[in-house]
């Protein structure tokens, strides 16, 4: 080689070196990182610079030649694999929160940013920096169970479906596993309050630590959980570790047996929306499985069948909603002394199922996250019914149901507010009844929704009051106009020796809070007299007729003579 050729080659080499250094500098600036990696097409580390000792407990030289995915917490490996392959196509990604294997294998939360100058052939530059609290909070921002820190079923289904489809699209894999502790209630009864909190938090922390992204886990029911995890996760080991955890917390050392079943979904089985609906439907069946004696292994094995059923039923239900294939049946709420109809509750009945209770259909809508769509359709239907009468006629007032699920849906809240804004004449004619209040995960937001209705001139009723201890918490946080005493609570109060005192105390509490009361399931004259003696303001039940689409069925009011007799006796 001549001297001239050597000079040219040296110049080209220096130029290439400068180009590499330039690329690294640009990538470091883009990634805004404490640590920079350069990865080849197989994601092997070819260059490392920065705080490798602080992040991994190893010098940068020790990391060269390592596959970057081996530096990541195993549970996050499919997520990181998906991210890296995605960056090959898009060219960049910023502030993805993941976990790495830090010194002594400890999991460290970091923010990952990556840059690829030439996605078609160039190396990938990955920057890491210590995750700020705000980054971690954003990654874990969905509603969670207060004690365990785990998602509810709805949030989990959406998150798991989204991540699973992205992971599968990148050629990676992950699975959803159902985890059951059948004796959880018995175990909790052996523990004091502090130990129960420790148990809930410990199980929650363990499941999150083993899940994709550190947050892909849910509490489905008492002792029932679900987790999205890497395909390489050894589920049997996970089960044994949870059992060991329960033994450590149990003062008797007995602990509780843990069962699991893994659902495997192919990458092309369903689109993301249908997968989310199917997962939510399956989780609802999982919640019911123990009571119905269904094995969770059978449930998981039939996952594709369940999801298929859910998709068909979801599409059918959407058709019912969009085409308004249902009608409104009315049931009167009556003043307990005068017998005057205060308002009517609007109950749905489906055209395709005449005479059949809508309970199963509504439950399905709740299980698949569609209830907010139906609640909005029902509100529109009631507004249309009220619009048949003159605007200056205040004779008829109607309460429309709102599920606790719907309150947490911004799309529902926004659409409902637009409906009311477009129909201001409904003030004083339209009321709202909050059902399934146990589904409200954020009471502060729920109260904001309630107050937005009341500030617009709409009365709000809280349904199912007295059916559980949480009712008192709801009443202390939620400012409402009326509470509806649960029918089972009314019936139980009639049977119990101290029932009259209990129900009287409830109505007195509400009276002091300036909240009126409605007793439901008043089907006999004896129940009517009992509710009157206990201080209820209004009653509702079959004694005054079954729900009907024809308002004329309540004029005159069936059993109206009972009130005339009561007024005579009073005076």
Helices and strands in order:
Layout: H1 3-31, E1 35-39, E2 45-50, H2 52-56, H3 60-63, H4 77-90, E3 92-101, E4 107-115, E5 124-130, H5 133-139, H6 153-169, E6 174-180, H7 184-190, H8 193-209, E7 217-221, E8 224-230, H9 235-249, E9 259-263, H10 272-292, H11 296-301, H12 303-322, E10 326-335, E11 341-350, H13 359-367, H14 371-386, E12 398-403, H15 404-407, H16 410-422, E13 430-435, H17 443-455, E14 460-465, H18 470-477, E15 482-485, H19 487-495, H20 499-512, E16 516-519, H21 525-533, E17 538-539, H22 561-570
Parallel strand pairs: 11-12, 12-13, 13-14, 14-15, 15-16, 16-17
Antiparallel strand pairs: 1-2, 1-5, 3-4, 4-5, 6-8, 6-9, 7-8, 10-11, 10-17
